Each structure stands twice: as structure tokens, then as C-alpha cells.
Amino acid sequence: MTALAHQSSSKRRLLLASDRSDQSSELASILQSVGEVDRISTSDIPDAPARHFAGMVVDINLRSAESVQRVRSKLRGEAYRSMPRLFVLADSLHHGSMQAWALGATDTISRPFDVESILQRIRSAFPDSSGFDLTEGGEALNTGIAAAHAVMVRIFEKLPAGIPLTFSDILKAETRILRAIKQSSLRSWLATVGRHHSGSYRHCLFVTGFAVAYAQHLGMREDDQRRVARAALLHDVGKAFVPVAILDKPGQLSDEEMSVIRKHPRLGYDALAAEGGFPPEMLDVVLHHHELLDGTGYPNGLHGDRISDIVRLTTIVDIYAALVENRAYRLPFTHAKAFATMEQMGGKLDQHLLQAFRPVAFGSY
């Protein structure tokens, strides 16, 4: 083992579960540069993980029903809920990402491996310490993120499979999310989400964190904070009906792919309207969160006063979250660059709301 691995092993110990004949030797070598690695077969995954593990890497054949069932029976249990779980995907398996999430993944990496990007993902996904925050704020944070994650599962896994999303699914999560931001911090929320999630899950959870922190910063009544939390959680529900290959494309989208993406507000609105039970203002956010005040947004090209306050707020946090997130085709913007970019959008955004958002944005990193 290298000197670097010896230095890191005192901070980070990883469990690598594999069903590959070579026991994932290449991956193990990469992991050893950021920590100590214990390799086991998927048949030897324990019912509960040892507390000294910072996280788990699962490298299995997702086409093998036997392997999938073996891992599912272990990782979907309560004992693994708070442990980061990173799954390895074969690039030829187009729907592997969704299957990995269904098995309990909190992040994914793909073959063929790019060592530098893998190491960056590993360091982000797995904390340096194996312990979890057991303070009151830490417990609230863990519970809040788990509740929000459960909503994401309902949206991106259950809904496309024909299992309806209900308003009660959202109500179950909102109190825990509000408490998580209030008792810990937006910074802690973003750091934890950034380690444990990627793609559409991460974006929706970032938007939710920013929106709730913004509502609390403005001193909104609790009922209004709940309305904002619900809107943020649901704003991208239509992406559940967009092909995974487009959502997960590691690069900028073509014009044709962008036209597909631009259908997601209407798709989400239609799905929730058909289900019934969702307040009109939530449907308003789902349908109109990409509208801009000067009429250049979509899908309806609304102008000024036709765009509600809750939509304007959601649009601001949605854009800001997208800019500060790490994307496959670009590095994340700094908070200063992201905010300046939005100021330069001028009359497209509600600049009064944007300036009120400044303390939240600049205090989040």
C-alpha cells in the first residue's frame, strides 16, 4: 500500500462488495489511494455494517437477478440507511442508474474508469470520518434528508412505473425538512446532499434546501415555509418522464434533446393534475418554474404579473442551484459568479427577490 493510502486509511475505511471474478481489483487499487479497502463478496454483505466504515462501494452485474436480489435484501434495510452507498455502472447498461437508485445507491460511478474523476467522486461521497453526527441538529439533518430522498424515490422511480404520487407523500416530508434546515444549517444540508446524491436527486434536494433556507431567512410564517418546501420538492417532477439517457448525458444537450427537456414542466403538471389533490399553487410552480418575467421563458412565455411570487422564488433558487452544482460538462460556479450571472439576467428575474436571496446564497458555502 502506498504512503498516501496509509495516510488516508486512518480517516476513511471503505467496504467494497463485488461479484466480479477479479474482486474488482482495478477499482480496489483506485480506492486504496483515498482509504483502506475491505473487499467482500456480495454473498458476504453483513446484515448491518460496522461503524468504522465511512461508506460502501457495490460493484455487481446489474443484469444478474441473483446478484441484484442478494444486494437488495441487505441494503434496503434500516441498518444501511445512513451509510453512503456508491454503485458502479457499466456504461452499456442504459438504465443502470435508475436500477442502482432502486437498490439503495446514494451515488454512482461508471466504467470505464477515469481515475481522477472517480477519486473526486469518492472523496465527495464518503466523509473522512466514519462517525455520523448524533447531535440534535445532526439527527434532524439526517432525518430531513432521508424524508426528502423518499420523495425523490416516489418521483423518479415509482411515478414512471405507474405508481401515483399523492399530496400526502409530500406532507409526510415537509416538517422534517423544515426542522433539518432550522436546527442544522443550509451549509450542512448542501454538504450532505452533495456527498450522497447526484443528478436529478441532488438538484431537487439542493433547490429544496435553498428554498426552505430562503423562506426562513425572510421570516415567512411556518405555513408559508411549508408551501415553499412543497413547491421546491415537486418543481421538477416532470423530469421523471424524460429519458434517463438525456437526464444523465455527460455533456451539453443537443437542440433536439433540449426540446425534450423543455417538455418536463407540462409533463409534470399533467401527471399531478390527473392524480388530483394537489393545490393549484403547487401545480403553478411545476408548470411555470422556467417562465421569465420578460416573456422569454417556457412553456407559456408568461410576462411579469402573470408569474406568481412563489414561482418567482422557486425560479431563483432553481437557477442558482443549477449554477453552483457540479455538472459533467462544466465545473460548478462559485457563489459570487453564480449570483453575478443572475444579476446580469436583469428583467428576466425578480431582482428584489434576488437581492433578498443574497445573504442565503453567500452564507451557504
Description:
InterPro entries: CheY-like_superfamily (IPR011006), HD/PDEase_dom (IPR003607), HD_GYP_dom (IPR037522), HDIG_dom (IPR006675), Sig_transdc_resp-reg_receiver (IPR001789). The modification 4-aspartylphosphate is found at residue 59. It is a single chain. The chain is of the alpha/beta class and 365 residues long. It has two domains: 3-125, Rossmann fold; 136-362, Hypothetical protein af1432 (Orthogonal Bundle). The chain has helices spanning 3-9, 25-31, 65-75, 96-102, 115-125, 136-158, 167-183, 186-196, 199-217, 222-234, 244-247, 255-261, 264-275, 280-288, 309-324, 335-343, 351-362, and strands at 13-18, 36-41, 55-59, 85-90, 107-111. A five-stranded parallel sheet has the order 2-1-3-4-5, with helices on both faces. Strand 1 (13-18), helix 2 and strand 2 form a beta-alpha-beta unit. Helix 7 (167-183) packs across helix 10 (222-234) and helix 9 (199-217) packs across helix 15. It is globular. The two termini are 35 Å apart. The relative contact order is 0.08. Mean pLDDT is 85; it is low at 1-10 and 129-135.
Helix and strand topology:
Blueprint: H1 3-9, E1 13-18, H2 25-31, E2 36-41, E3 55-59, H3 65-75, E4 85-90, H4 96-102, E5 107-111, H5 115-125, H6 136-158, H7 167-183, H8 186-196, H9 199-217, H10 222-234, H11 244-247, H12 255-261, H13 264-275, H14 280-288, H15 309-324, H16 335-343, H17 351-362
Parallel strand pairs: 1-2, 1-3, 3-4, 4-5
Helix pairs in contact: 6-7, 7-9, 7-10, 8-9, 9-10, 9-15, 9-17, 10-14, 13-14, 15-16, 15-17, 16-17
